[in-house]
Design goal:
alpha+beta; 55% helix; 4-stranded mixed sheet; Arc Repressor Mutant, subunit A; ATP-binding; Helicase DnaB; globular; helicase activity; nucleotide-binding; 6 strands
Amino acid sequence: MALHWMHLLPVDRYIVRANSYINETDRKIITLLYQPLIGAVAHSLYFALESELEKDQFTSLETTHKTLMTMMGLPLDKIFEERKKLEGIGLLNVYKQKLDDDVSYLYELQKPFSPQEFFKDDVLSVYLYNRVGKYRYLQLRDRFTISKVSKEEYKDITMSFGDVFTSLHHSEISSQQGELSSSLAIDLNRDIVGNDDSTQSYSILEDTFDFSLLTTHLSNLINPKTLLTEKVKDMIVRLAFVYRIDPYEMSKIIQDSLLHDDKVDLDLMREKVKNWYKFTHESEPPGLGLRTHPQKHRTMTGKQPSNEEEEMIFLYETESPLTLLESKSDGAKVPIADAKIIESLLLDYKLLPGVANVLLDFILEINDMKLTKSYVEKIAAQWARKNIKTVKEAMILAKAEYKKRSQWEQGLSETAATKEVSAKTRQNNNRYVRKDRLPKWLTEEKKETKPGQEDDISKVKEELEAKLKQLKLQRKQEG
């Protein structure tokens, strides 16, 4: 979790702005379709900001965040975290202005997607399905659905503009030419209220889809430059992100979705993708655990690993959490319960995928390859509070946690050793000492050694082992 005071203070001022009407239908869409994804608090924050707009006004008076805290009865750090949810899902754009020590924000409210756009969106629809379940999802979709009407039996008798209105005479236009030109000119310093679809969107992580590899798998008869328009590429990135499709599989789906050699039917491609996913992964909707670590937070990009620790960093940065768990079980399917734990790490605790990888691998290694939900969430909460962004930082914390755990177990062992216990009891206690080999990055601590120091340490170790054997032999003879 980010330290909110580094970004936002109660004295910071803000203005709310809307560039289009937010009507009752929009409010219903936000409540029924968006609220399950962002939660009740973020939902309330949106309408708290919207309430500051007077009737038929699209810009509010300036106020401070202290006022917002009082109105919502929430601390500023909570408001900051909930505000990010609105930004991420495309309901709020935030702009910051800093003049000397004065900071002010512009909160620009965005209209939600229409029901048609929402349920056709391959990201939001899948997330809603995951959150509310099949029955509620179908119930919500039916609520925004109307029956189709066959118009084949009807005759279109709609009047055109020219059938109703007569054109202006040339003389009428000429007489008003000066006033007309000045009145119709658009003031470039002001915006007209409307629905600008280009602003109603949201980003899906970073663009990691390899289009160059995709084009190599396409047929030679297809011209990639003509085929891969911006709209098609955007759809490919969304579908690949949600359904975990590599360039090779995507190339086959695209070629099955062609209307002509140079045009893709996007609706058909969407259906092909869903059918492919259903056939490949049965009927389970995809989760969030398919993300990989963001490029801007990677430390091994363009570098070759020189030791085991760097190899593990590279692995954690390039593998998704689900893929990591699959590799731990030799490719076996990840149980739904474990997949839900991964989604919770990424969605609820806002851990980046590489950081989640370190946490998962650490828990598996110290907990006999079991993911204990309560223990995972305890560590995840700590790492979230520390705002861990890189794999290296996560590994340092994991080492510290392992060292603390080892010292605690050693303390228990030393306490038990001071008591008079039977050989059988000592044998039973030894069962709980972990015998399997842990990763070097977790257990090893880097220490500087002087030349010849390693030989001295080995010599002392051999002498101690010899004395220990001699002591055991002496006790055996006395017994």
